[in-house]
Amino acid sequence: MLVIIAGSLTRVRLWELAPGAAEAVAPRMTFGEDALAFATRYETDGEVMFVTALGSRLSLLDVVAAWRDDDVRILTFEERFGTQTPSQQREGNARAMVSSKQIAEFVALTRLGIESEFVYGDVVIDEVVCEEAPDPQSACKQLAIGDTIVTFDGRPTPILPALIEVVTVRSPGDVVPVGVRREGSDDVVTLNIKLIASPDDSQRTIIGIMPRDTRTVKTPFEVGIDTDSIGGPSAGLAFTLALIDELSKGSLTGNVKVAVTGTIDGDESVGAVGAVPQKAVAARDSGAKLFLVPAGQSADDIALARRIGGARMRVETVGTLQDALDILRGIGGDPLPDATTND
User: Fold this and answer.
1) What is the three-class DSSP state of 242?
2) DSSP letter (8 states) at residue 249
């Protein structure tokens, strides 16, 4: 007995990647009091669910149990957090969740004919891009996560499009003065940054950063989605579909329980996410009859999700919002009308 207690209390530097839960989005939604001036909220018999995976630190006893569970992966610190600290990852996931809600609002309301627009924020660094042997003047060596770029070669860059415009006309190897406001400071320092070629396209010049998504969405009414402490962008498509379903007549899902995972972008494209096999287990166990996953997932992820779903749950891949709408229409979902008060 003492051995079991000791094992349960002994923490090791290993983490789980395990099935979480599939939860309906609709009950988590709230709308501002002025929403009825622009749209009607409808009841539906279907259900759009977002899906989570667990990633808690393990005890010695947990590790033994996890090794015996085919649905659980055991991760090292590096596999769980990469080059980030746990606090950096938590903060990043929290920001990504906020961003996914904002983008979902924009995409869903635009689809319904309700005017919405993105408002760009500051150019904040979310990640630095490092070459194999970084130059001492590179962004990799001089910039940090959380820094804000305010000028480039003396020109103000208050938003990302302005920065892209002035960077794209330069060449890799150019050394350019960049005005930077360090996180937590109001002062601007000027650093001479050596530009590099994009790792994905040697003909494209970049500073050597990945910007944080600081966009906000301007909509005619407020939409709230309560996600507790859940983080990350993987529920974006689920939020989009659930919002469309709430503000359109009939049932978007054909009265079927549908689980969904995948990011959503402003152009309606759906992006790949992590832990798809674990999410497939959670979706299947929730009673979902259909599980929508990003087309950009690996072939192994998709094949394993389909094996997990078996005869109980159909698994389909989607690359865009329209792909998802077409599949839902095919299972009996109602066509998408205009939800504005002018219909």
Assistant:
1) helix
2) S
- 6 vs 203: which has the higher pLDDT: 203
CB atoms near residue 263 (< 10 Å): 22
On whether the CB atoms of residues 30 and 226 are closer than 8 A, the answer is yes
Instruction: Assess contact for 49 and 260: CB atoms under 8 A.
Output: yes
Model confidence pLDDT, tens digit, residues 1-60 = 544 454 444 567 899 999 999 999 999 999 988 887 888 888 887 899 999 999 899 988
Q: Which amino acid does the sequence have at 338?
A: D
How far is residue 227 from each of residues 50, 126, 266, measured CA to CA in Å?
10, 23, 21
What would the CATH number be for the domain defined by 123-211? 2.30.42.10
HSE toward the beta carbon, residue 263, CA cutoff 13 A: 18
Q: CATH for 20-54+96-115+221-330? A: 3.30.230.10
Give the C-alpha separation, 314 to 124, whole Å. Answer: 40
Distances in Å between the Cα of 194 and the Cα atoms of 122, 123, 150, 275 are 22, 18, 17, 37
d(CA 343, CA 114): 12
Domain borders along the chain are 20-54+96-115+221-330, 123-211
CB 235 within 8 A of CB 102: no
DSSP string of 132-171? Answer: SS--TTBHHHH--TT-EEEEETTEE--SHHHHHHHHTTS-
- Reading the block at residue 277, the tokens are 């096999």
Nearest to 148 by CA among 119, 123, 178: 123
Distances (CA, A) of 230 to 55, 74, 153: 11, 20, 40
Paired strand residues for 196: 206
Question: How much is the pTM?
Answer: 0.86
Alpha helix ranges (H) inside the chain: 2-9, 60-67, 77-81, 86-111, 139-142, 160-167, 236-246, 276-285, 299-309, 321-330
pLDDT confidence of residue 246? 92
Radius of gyration of the CA atoms of the chain, in A: 23
